Amino acid sequence: MSRKFADVKTELPGPKAKELLDRRHDIVPQGVGYGIPTFVESAKGALLNDVDGNKFIDFAGAIGCINVGHSHGTVTEALHDQVDRYIHTGFNVMMYDPYIEFAEKLAALAPGSFDKKVMFLNSGAEANENAVKIARKYTNRQAVVSFTGGFHGRTLMTMTMTGKVKPYKYEYGPFAPEVYHAPYPYHYRRPESMNEEDYSDYMLQQVEDFFVKEVDPTQVAAFIMEPVQGESGFIVPDKKFVQGVYDLCKQHGILFIADEIQTGFGRTGKYFAMEHFRVEPDLVAISKSMAAGLPISGIIGRKEVMDGANPGELGGTYCGSPLGCRAGIAVLDVMEKENIPARGEKIGKRVMEKFKEMYGKYDVIGDYRGLGAMCALELVKDRETKEPAKEQTAQVLQEAHKRGLIVLKAGVYDNVVRLLMPLVITDEQLEEGLELLEESVEAVMAGATK
């Protein structure tokens, strides 16, 4: 195919990237992983240029941080203005109005007809960790329930809540106490004897039984759930399950925390993915695309719940930095003016059409799924046995990178190709990227890798 946007002229890494990669290996611990072996020179919208002059279409979006695109003019203008005013004073020392403005805007957008308050932190893991603190303080209960396959971060508490062992938890114990993992629906891998409706009923019953087998509901402060599980392979739960868990929480006085860190800010076709399930979480953890890549996170919650903590019990040195808040305000401006959630829905529809076409051509694709523009392919060695095709998944990524497409893997079994392209991607860029992805899958299937 003729390529208008992607153009890889060198092997990866190229000469300049190779020099930088050697320096990286000398100074950066191996525990800090990387995907593609090159280094960025510049980025705009959904396109990346590396230090060797290679051009890439970005289907990764910094793991979902760049919904409004790289270096959007509205965001960079706001940042330049803020840098000229002041960089940091510490909100707990001398406050600043961008924090208040950003909080007000987020409270108005978040699901829930109740009064809300908002606080800011530095990372997604911090948001989830503090949501747990807030829930425990308000309920005066200790237990927290997350779900198998969920990912919530790499701090001690959030690593404990995460439902995948490698690479996140292996040999990093002991873990935080009073954290339990409830079963989560994985429709593609449900028992063959069950249809979707029966499986949904069965999984809800498993959660109810969980209160008998694992922890009494009177001891549980909160459930925490990703509306779509990210790191586990974009596993989309059914509405009945999510609403059923929410109803159980309400029945037992348990708070419901929505981890919207990867699903938020238009990714699924709505500002917040929980809107698809018609659930109003008590607390919502946010980060990633809320500020176009600036390190900031937050919690949006019921007013009375958020006010349960006493002064000084929440916060941190850099929490809600002026730069992050100004970038976040600019992001919301872009999202409204360019109707980013609607664009996410349109992108997702086109991607799923392409995935359906590919499913009919390549047996290695066992399942394709998604919600809005949060879409994935699950690769298997055999469609009957559904044995994960971990090696082939890694090969597809390598082939895509060589062709100029940045793409990520995911999945409990590391056999899922996930797409998180910036939602400002043009139709032309999207089509070229999808063709490159198909070309990569075809090459792996044919054994004709570059």
TrEMBL record:
Pathway: Amino-acid degradation; 4-aminobutanoate degradation
Coiled coil: none
EC number(s) stated in the UniProt entry for this protein: 2.6.1.19, 2.6.1.22
Catalytic activity: 4-aminobutanoate + 2-oxoglutarate = succinate semialdehyde + L-glutamate; (S)-3-amino-2-methylpropanoate + 2-oxoglutarate = 2-methyl-3-oxopropanoate + L-glutamate
Keywords, ordered alphabetically: Aminotransferase, Pyridoxal phosphate, Transferase
Cofactor(s) this protein cannot do without: pyridoxal 5'-phosphate
Superkingdom field: Bacteria
Source organism of the structure: Virgibacillus siamensis
Membership in a protein family: Belongs to the class-III pyridoxal-phosphate-dependent aminotransferase family.
Protein name, entry field: (S)-3-amino-2-methylpropionate transaminase
